[in-house]
Amino acid sequence: LLPQAGYLHPDEFFQSPEVMAGDILNLQVYYPWEFLSSSPCRTVVFPLMTSGVTYWVIKSLQQLDICSSCINSYTLLVSPRLLFTLFSFILDYSVYRLAPFWEVDPWKALVLLAGSYVTLVFYTRTFTNTLEGLLFALLMLLVSSRKSDGSLAEPTSSPLVGIITTAGFFNRPTFLAFALMPLLYWAGLIVDSQKSIKTVINHFLKLVLCACFTAIVFVTADTFYFTSMGLDNLYSIKKSSLFDVIGQLNEKMIVTPFNFLSYNLNPYNLALHGSHPRVTHFTVNGIMLFGILHILAIGAGFKMLKKYIHQLIWVKSYCHGSSGLLVHSEGSPTLLLFYFVPLAFLSLFSHQEPRFLIPLILPLVLFSTSQNRAVKWKHVIIIFNVLGALLFGCLHQGGLIPCLFHLEQLMHSPETSIHPRHYTLLFAHTYMPPRSLLNIKKRDTHIEVIDMAGSEEETLCRTVEQRANNFTCNDCHVFVIIPGTVRATITKCGVSFLNETLIFPHLSMEDPPQIPFLFSGNWRSQLGLYILQLERDQ
After folding, report:
1. Peptide bond into 516 cis (omega under 30)
2. Following CA atoms 180, 184, 185, 186 in sequence, which dihedral angle do they give, to the nearest 10 degrees?
3. What predicted TM-score, i.e. pTM, was given to this entire model?
4. How many Å apart are CA 437 and CA 473, to the nearest integer?
5. What pLDDT, in 10s, does the model give residues 399-426?
6. CA quadruple 94, 96, 102, 107: dihedral, nearest 10
7. What is the pLDDT of residues 117-135, one digit of tens each?
8. Residue 121, SS3?
9. In degrees to the nearest 10, what's the CA dihedral of 296, 298, 300, 301?
10. Dihedral sign, CA of 449, 453, 459, 465?
């Protein structure tokens, strides 16, 4: 309810809340290319079930006069995050239930999970990766069950396994990398526990049928959405006959995961989003997210591999290739496979971001808790997660959301409602601003948002000068939003400002502060975001 100001990545807004704010609340938003009818690469089902539901609730409360001003920048930010925070307890429940299965102390595992900044920051944000992590947790829960006497229980959750696997695939096709080991483990349990081939086939049939039914639901919903392009237009479908609707679906069946894979399997497309060395997940991202736990897992993995190779050589040399090899290693080899197999598959792609790995926190926490590995590094883990929470939860692009709150209040002040003014908001060297947080109705044409991203000095100055020379009305207001580290650039543009507001803190890793300035009297400026009101050029 006191929202973190840190802005992790544009996808936390532009893959769910921004789209739903435009469709349900009729606000001016920026639709990302994945949600355009010309290139549908993201399912609309999960955005509807999360941000869509919360926005529908606050819209209904306002329409019923229960809350006269329910729709504002605060509720637009907090309501979807609150729902995701509630969903994040699925992770806690899964750890509590899975710990006895993997012979781990559940309370120690829960403390390790709850103290991780990945849980506190990433799992309270509206990422598709967050949903991927929760579905992965549910899948692990379904395939891991014991009887009261401690023996393995017979798998009976084939339909649910099929539903969750398919839902995860439609949410993010990379879910198959996470689902591979749980599905193989589940299949092994099925084959080992069943004496009849007929029963085995029955389990797999249930899985396939439920997976197909789930896929049909997603494809139908996405086809309706993208062919009508928006929720508002869906209501017009009711006026059409059933045969017209079926004909429309058959004419253009949209399967978003296939479009996603088609786009991302093209190296040129991935390069547009940034190319990284194939070892980035192993050497950088894993450590950035999980710290010493990732390093401990790598060490244990190498030990397990070394023992396996030694045992394999011994078996071939002395037992003439006999079977029945059993690998003993520190902790559970299966949990290590649950961690490293998805990591290896995700490393095949050249575009590698830290958030892609957040679902792996579950097997890593379970593995790290076994044999009290994490306890030995308790102080290191605490310091690492405190620093991570501060950096990503508060500092990283931390001025942008408070800036949008400030501008929303300014543009919706009582004075502005009596005498409408024209506002131009020019953002430079910040992450893409989510327009939805400005709470501008689509019919309002007096507010213009310009995102200049990381424009060069010459381009930025030219644009600012044009705005200063071309005030089209007496009540026109132009604001330039720029990090303190780039503030000197604006002074070279030859324009003056009526006033300036500094929002602190704001750390831009794209334009990092210079270390000497951080020890000067100007350090707040280096860690701040400026809102500069442009003065009319006389």
Report:
1. no
2. 100
3. 0.91
4. 26
5. 999 999 999 999 988 776 667 788 899 9
6. 140
7. 999 999 999 999 999 999 9
8. helix
9. 160
10. positive
